[in-house]
């Protein structure tokens, strides 16, 4: 079943609570964007954030240069941890991070930026639970959707038809229609929901499209 997963960015707990409160009544899984201001320009969720309600599930998207340190300190905050293959130097480091996440009994995801080719992650496709395709240049809400990344979804599906694929960036009621039939399992939605003036209507509209 296809899912909408709302993404959350925040510079402090107050901002996080506000954005979480806007969408929490409509979803069970949330996508937390961790940004260090180095791997990407913006910063997000670098403070010791908390959620009072653990009935939900959380996936963390590490847009940072040192995923190892974050994972060691914060792995309990996540049900699934997604790191960027571009943040690591070589295959040895990538496999070490995969092993580290699995040692914490958490699911593993790998994210790839728009310019990164699928052949960079081929050797990991059987080791992870999810691939996150970035359809914008990562680092902030509201970036423009890049349709040229869609061929990657077809490539990955040919290599591993059972692997979960998620897409993140520029997803709204219009772009989702263009990519609905490509075999994507989940759609990460940020600014479209956070900027919504009628959140219930827009959430129901997206969910209706996925039926």
Give me some keywords for this one:
211 residues, alpha/beta, TIM Barrel, 7 helices, 9 strands
Describe this structure in words.
This protein has one domain (3-210): TIM Barrel (Alpha-Beta Barrel), CATH 3.20.20.70. Strands 1-2-4-5-6-7-8-9 form an eight-stranded parallel barrel, surrounded by five helices. It contains seven helices and nine strands, in the order E-H-E-E-E-H-E-H-E-E-H-E-H-E-H-H. The protein is globular and about 45 Å long. It has helices at 13-23, 67-74, 91-103, 150-159, 175-179, 191-194, 199-210, and strands at residues 3-8, 29-36, 43-44, 57-63, 80-84, 107-112, 130-134, 164-168, 186-189. Helix 3 links the parallel strand 5 (80-84) and strand 6 (107-112). It is an alpha/beta fold. Helices cover 30% and strands 23% of the residues.
User: How helix-rich are the residues, as a percent range?
Assistant: 25-40%
CATH top level class name? Alpha Beta
Query: CATH topology, what is it called?
Result: TIM Barrel
Strand order of the largest sheet: 1-2-4-5-6-7-8-9
- Tally the helices: what do you get? 7
The description of the largest β-sheet is:
8 strands, parallel, barrel
* Rough outline: globular
Label the CATH architecture: Alpha-Beta Barrel
Q: Outline the low-pLDDT stretches.
A: none
Along the chain, the helix and strand elements come as: EHEEEHEHEEHEHEHH
- The number of distinct β-strands equals 9
């Amino acid at each position: 079943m296809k899912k909408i997963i709302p993404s959350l960015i925040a510079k402090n707990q107050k901002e996080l609570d506000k954005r979480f409160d806007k969408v929490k009544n409509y979803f069970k899984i949330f996508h937390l964007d961790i940004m260090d201001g180095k791997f990407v320009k913006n910063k997000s969720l670098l403070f010791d954030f908390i959620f009072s309600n653990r009935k939900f599930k959380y996936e963390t998207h590490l847009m940072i240069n040192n995923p190892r340190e974050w994972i060691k300190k914060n792995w309990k905050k996540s049900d699934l941890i997604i790191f960027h293959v571009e943040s690591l130097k070589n295959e040895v480091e990538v496999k070490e991070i995969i092993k580290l996440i699995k040692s914490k009994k958490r699911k593993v995801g790998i994210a790839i930026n728009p310019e990164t080719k699928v052949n960079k992650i081929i050797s990991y496709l059987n080791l992870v639970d999810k691939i996150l395709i970035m359809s914008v240049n990562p680092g902030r809400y509201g970036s423009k959707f890049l349709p040229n990344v869609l061929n990657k979804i077809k490539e990955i599906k040919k290599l591993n038809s059972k692997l979960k694929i998620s897409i993140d960036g520029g997803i709204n009621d219009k772009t989702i229609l263009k990519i609905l039939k490509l075999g994507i399992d989940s759609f990460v939605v940020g600014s479209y929901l956070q900027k919504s003036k009628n959140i219930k209507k827009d959430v129901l509209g997206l969910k209706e499209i996925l039926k």
